[in-house]
């Protein structure tokens, strides 16, 4: 594709994504789920990396499993969208626009119980 063709295709994608984002279709909702999974994977890593205390050893194993499961679901849902001719969110800006989960860099300083509650 030429640069002009790429830009035209991308602008059409942005326009369609904006329309879909404001229309409660299955594809639009699945796009939100994909964005939320991406944010959740980040939150799970934050918990995995910064949990402390004797109970953290067992909990970290659980978080590793949850990250693996979330990554697989993330890819599976993206595949479903692609199979339906829809484009999943694929940029940090799109994840930010479509996510419904919140994240906070302060979480790493909280007690293990608070981290668990927040990531549940």
Average the pLDDT over all residues and give the rounded result. Answer: 89
General form? elongated
What can be said about the biggest beta sheet?
Answer: none
Beta-strand segment tally: 0
Alpha-beta classification: mainly alpha
The proportion of residues forming helix, as a percent range, comes to: over 70%
Could you tell me the strand content as a percent range? Answer: under 5%
Report the end-to-end length measured between terminal Cα atoms: 44 Å
The total of helices stands at 5
The value of Rg in angstroms is: 17 Å
As residue ranges, the low-confidence spans are none
Order of helices and strands: HHHHH
Describe this structure in words.
It is a single chain. The chain is an all-alpha fold. 72% of the residues lie in helices and 0% in strands. It has helices at 3-21, 26-50, 56-83, 92-98, 112-119. α2 packs across α4 (92-98). The protein is elongated, with a radius of gyration of 17 Å. The termini are far apart.
Write a compact overview of the structure shown.
With 120 residues, the chain is an all-alpha fold.
